[in-house]
Amino acid sequence: MQDQLAALLAKASAELPSLASRPDFEAAKARYVGPNGELTGLMKQMGAVPKEQKPIVGKLVNEAKTALQAHLDAALARLESAELAARLGPAVDPTLPSPDRGPGTHHPLTLVREEMTRILRKVGFTVVEGPEVETEYYCFDALNTPADHPARDAQDTFYLPASARFGNVSKKNPGERYLLRTHTSSVQIRTMLKGTPPIRIVSPGRVYRRDTTDATHSANFHQLECLYVDKNVTVRDLKALLDYIFASLLGKDTKTRFRPHYFGYTEPSFEVDLSATHLPKVNKPWIEIGGCGMVDPVVFQDVGYDPEVWSGYAFGMGLERLAMLLYGIDDIRYFYQNDVRFLRQFA
Amino acid sequence: MKLSRSWLQDYVDLSGITDDDISRAITFLGFEVEQVLRTGAPRFDLVVAGRILTRDKHPNADKLSICTVDVGPAHGGARTIVCGAPNCDAGNHVPVALPGAVLPGDFVIKEAKVRGQASSGMLCSAKELTLAEDSQGLLVLAGEPAPGTPLNELLPPGDVVFDIEITPNRPDALSHLGVARELAAWFKKELRYPAVSFTPAAISADARPDLLAYVRVLAETECPLYTATVVTGVKVGPSPEWLQRRLAAVGLRPINNIVDIGNYVMLEYGQPVHAFDAARLAGAELIVRRAAEGEKITTLDGKAHTLSAGLLVIADAQKPVVIAGVMGSAGAGVTISTTDLVLEVAHFKRQAVRATSKRLGLASDSSYRYERGVDVHSLDEAAHRFIDLILAHTGGRVAGPIHRVGAVAPWEREITVTPAYLNEKLGFEIPAAEMRAALESLELVVTREEPTATRGPAWTFSIPSWRDDLDRPIDLVEEVVRLHGTEKIPTSVITAPGLVGNDDPIVLFNRKVAEAFVGQGFNECVNYTLRPAKEVAAWAPPAQVEALALANPFVEDQSHLRPTLVSGLLASLQLNQARGVAASRLFETGRVFLERNGSLSECVAAAFVIAEETGERSWRPREAADFYTAKRHAASLAALAGIELERQPTALVAAPALGWQTGHAASAGDIRHGWTATFGLVDLAHLKTLGLTGKVYAGFFAIVSEKVEADADRRSYKPFGLHPAALRDLALVVPASTPAAEVQKAVAKHARAAAGQTFALESVELFDLYTGKGVPEAHQSLAYALTFRAPDRTLTDDEVNAAFNRVQADLTAAGFQIRK
């Protein structure tokens, strides 16, 4: 019996490691431990073993059974891993490019707008929107632009025909014409009329001018304007905002300076220059970036705010211009062509 | 406006102040300096007059001469200089650049050897000194100047011209005097007015009613004040050289003394003036009146104009001789033979001049000033200055009193402020004395000073007539901060209290769309809102195309508001394709304009395109996009606006499909009810006309702007079963024309009913769509996976089977054919 068991194990240890497939394995397994298997046959002979030898033989049989099972398990594991390897195929070349599409890209104007609104949100400005089709009241009258001001000319401003009707752009006066807003300042008026002070908003958006398209002009472009209305707002507060914005955008060393200027809806009014030392493709120490001023009392009166109580400031700038400065882009038309080689540069 | 430095010097002492400092002052006074130009001779150091004593041939070069030149005792007397000019003849007086001189172009003169011969300086041509564009040989100096005389002393003085932009609120600065006043205030200097000696009392000759009998003003509103002065015995000729030089420096061509003086006074005071040849006026009268329709005038620039009724003109007895405030006629202008003049100095209302100038498309320095606003209260002073200069430089005499028609109320304006108010508005402290001095330097005069209870003294300023822009206390804040220096506004931290609200829902929507689509591999595009008519017509019905047209487009291909974003994205695909750049997935957010209940509505929109053929090849191609790709992305657009597209009725786009491919594009929603979505294949014929190769799938979602809502309320949690699910598959054979959504809805309905109260249908998913063998012609098999689950226990086969049998029986009863 002992010899038979030893022979069996020897045979198994020789045969099992060389099995090539799972059917071979199943067949071999049946030959050893199946109902008619060799080990099963030997175990059946246990009955014939004399009683006093039974513990010894039983122990031998059990040892053989354990050893055989180990061989079988090893064989199975080997086969399974071979199968797995076959299913996986050869190792990948990790240096091949992924054929899957990568993420897309945000347009640079979106990036600049979002960065600006993020900066402004930190100091309490929330983003508001307004219609791009506007009326003369919101775009001009309410902003202290007299009826004969050249900016209102059909030469500079796009108008809709007198017959045009807009279901969701309200007119203040029945006779006024619809136009494409020439600045986002109209949003300030709508916001002030709708809300009550204090107000702190930023309105980014698309504006329209009747301009010849060239490297720096475009029939539509984008502006971003801030409006703050509260009690005791001062010129110094306005300067603080501008300093904060551009230090956040370009680093602590960035400086701004004001130059006196004229806008109908602010008094005093300033143009804002930016120290341009860290901007690409700029070869002068200061570069003009926007306009600002203290909200003119006339504007407050027009929206029903008491100018003796309320004061405020407004600041506006062109987003294309800012993006051109930040990225060193030299032609405004690139923003509107959507050449993918351009779009991918700002991801 | 161009300003001459030497001219400004007449009114304010700028000596010792650099051009850069003047430029800076102008800038910080609030006028943008567009450029600074230098006219005339630049400043030359170590360039002096020399006299050539001898000339000998250079031994080693045919074309060179060796000259000895006397450059004066201060520079060492005679020196040897090699010269290549043909006219370096002995006896000529020429400019000599001595060693150490720097000529234009940073050309440094040194002691040198020229072909072996020492040369101690350079004899100069006019071109080398940038005194002429081109020149032949040396500049020979006239008048035999003493050797050693600095060259600049022999040349007319150069000038510096500041070209500045005057903001519309400051018409007073459209004059040398006006800007000089600003500079005087800035540099704390005195302003020196021109000495005007003429007074109406000093009439030197008898009136000449034969030349001008009377002036009549028939348009008093538009012309509140008109003055005309007869000057006789003038001699027309060139104006003095200094005057010519000043006009030339600021870009005006000198013509003759009369015309030049007129221009000079305009540029000095900002008051336009005009001179007629008295002999050429018919009927010895001047009438300010409205033109009759069709009247003709040929202006000084040689252009003929036909006037329309109502335009303001100055006429003689027969014809218009001036378009009021704009330009005079050639026929009444001064000529070389003119001897008697009528000098017009008048005030015209800005609206009248503007209307005329616009109607005729004719602008002038005069009309520009009237349109901006001329100070009528300074009119007489300018008129007297005009007469003064005419008398001084033409030899004429004033004949009779000035014809002065009309009157203006005296100017009176006062503003009362306290220094406390000014500092409050500024937010930082400027000493009261400085503020007062600043305002006074602009000729605001304190007429009263009164104490206030709590706010210190209150100053009442009288405002000069030329500062119509100063009307309220706030206007003085700008004057104070301007003269204090806006660069000195201190920096500080933002101290405003928090007012945080929510961003506009439209902003949130656009932001979410961008995040989602960028994540899906789309490139964000920005296209123009204004589109060509032809493009809009491809995407909107004819009536809407008409409604979208602008009244005054600027260029033909930007004539209409866009009704879709898809057309712009297709244009972007075109551009990329034309440039050989692979562009496949593009998206855009922006406003569109859609017809809604009889009017247009501005809508918030988002769209995408997916181009099939980009020319891009891959070593491992991925599955191509199809209709259902577009449907998925359109659904995510709608979802970002809070709309579940899958739950909305969806149908094929009906003919005419306007841009979309019939049978392969669908839409949901309706803009009349607030939103619309369209998605699928772009019309292949349209793509062909665009020259785009390959299919393009697209999607477009628009929602009326006021209907974009902030994020929906926070959802509450629904418990989900933790016990095992029971799955059953069910296939139905239906006519191919039956919408799949209807079939699924029926399956779900019956399965939910069959599950009853004790357990639930968790989901129904379509997992197979089959046509072919075993399914009749024009039919298809739709296979659904049904998932049942009970919240509290494991379902038994028996109860699930019972429910599944019931589902099949109910569907059969409802007319569906179960595929076994």
Task: Write up what this structure looks like.
The complex is a heterodimer of chains A (347) and B (820). Chain A has 347 residues and is an alpha+beta fold. Chain A has helices at residues 2-15, 22-33, 38-44, 54-88, 108-122, 136-139, 185-194, 235-250, 297-302, 319-327, 334-337, 340-343, and strands at 126-127, 133-135, 178-180, 199-208, 220-230, 256-263, 266-275, 286-295, 311-318. Chain A has a seven-stranded mixed beta sheet with strand order 1-4-5-9-8-7-6, sandwiched between helices. With 820 residues, chain B is an alpha+beta fold. Chain B has six domains: 2-40 and 159-187, Phenylalanyl-tRNA Synthetase, Chain B, domain 1 (2-Layer Sandwich); 47-154, Nucleic acid-binding proteins (OB fold (Dihydrolipoamide Acetyltransferase, E2P)); 200-406, Phenylalanyl-trna Synthetase, Chain B, domain 3 (Phenylalanyl-tRNA Synthetase, Chain B, domain 3), CATH 3.50.40.10; 414-487, 2-Layer Sandwich (Phenylalanyl-tRNA Synthetase, Chain B, domain 1), CATH 3.30.56; 505-616 and 623-707, BirA Bifunctional Protein, domain 2, CATH 3.30.930; 726-818, Alpha-Beta Plaits (2-Layer Sandwich). Chain B contains 20 helices and 40 strands. The longest helix of chain B is centred in the last third of the chain and has 17 residues, at 797-813. Chain B is elongated and about 130 Å long.
